[in-house]
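Repro:
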Amino acid sequence: MKNAIISFVISALIGLGFGYVVFKVIGSHDEQPQASSTTNSSTQTKETSTSPTEDAKTVSVDENNILSKRGCLGCHSVGSLGLKGGQVGPDLSQAFVNVEGKHGIPIQEFLKKPTSAVMSGVLGKNPLTDDQRKQVLELLKKASETK
């Protein structure tokens, strides 16, 4: 019995250590470009500082948008709008166009009653109001039209 407990504890520590290392590597991979951009030459810094300004000119998205308010950006991002979020869920840049082909129902219906297991769990517990659905649809339509 003691051997089983000791083996379990050792395995758990190894698993947690491995998980920490993997996520630390993934996390540092995302942060590495930011750190290197601050140490780059002034020419490269100008390029990185110009890019967000250009994106802001083409699409103005309030940082306090519905996707932020509802926590969607915890799992998803919207690259076409410059909204960085989680990497667990798919990028929503083309969701307005692609949901029907992927899930078999229009996006308006998907937001009411999702056909995917994950999203039905998320929206089933905390459904969107009609106004919130309208805001999400407007934002996702804008995302699909932005290149």
